[in-house]
Design brief:
The chain has about 240 residues and is α/β, with parallel strands linked by helices. The chain has a domain at about 5-170: Alpha-Beta Complex (2-enoyl-CoA Hydratase, Chain A, domain 1), CATH 3.90.226.10. Helices cover about 50% and strands about 20% of the residues. It contains nine helices and ten strands. A six-stranded mixed sheet has the order 1-2-3-5-7-10, with helices on both faces. Strands 4-6-8-9 form a four-stranded mixed sheet. Strand 1 (about 5-10) and strand 2 (about 10-15) form a beta hairpin.
Amino acid sequence: MTLIGRTRARGIETLTLDSPHNRNALSAALVGELATALAEGEKDGDVRAIVLTHTGNTFSAGADLKDPPDPDALVGLLRQIIELPKPVLARVTGHVRAGGLGLLATCDIGVAATGSSFAFTEVRIGVAPAVISLPLLPRTDPRALARYYLTGERFDAAEAARIGLLTATGDAVDDVLEPLLDGLRKAAPEALAETKRLLTARVLEAFDRDAADLTALSARLFASAQAREGMTAFLERRDPAWAL
């Protein structure tokens, strides 16, 4: 079963997360297939930019709790998007949760429909947004992250744009996206690559400095008793034991 749809129009490759049975959760299989599709798009000289979008009402629900990716594989995917010499844009028309926000944060430009919603739900299942902090901390308002990391509150697209998680929002997301794509089509490929290198330098510094520690933290927390209780409660649709 293919988990990544692929289409192309006028130099723009669109990769569609297509795993509706688990709300496009980041399973080991999806992470691997997406990494392969991105690598092929990078090598193709006819591709000017890549759009990452989704089927269904969820861009990504975060890590697949039944088939989670290896933390190193997830770090590798996030870094791959950051290092890709072609712009990667996110097109969101639904909900984004937990690890899905890390995927969104790696994209150079993020556009979402007005009705989209966002939440860092990790603390509610007994873990922390460890690996996804690699792209998030350098790019997003620190006071806002403190609030949403610690509380797990849901926030809307306008707030996501205010704190730097998104570039733009609109009722008709393609009306917002198309002018951006037209601009990229007019840009010289080598100039785009070098400009992206300038923009991602600080993010890559965070990967070089912190990836190993945050990967270890993620593995430790996911193996903890609190995480087992939190994930079990989530799958059983009940409150975890610590909820007051």
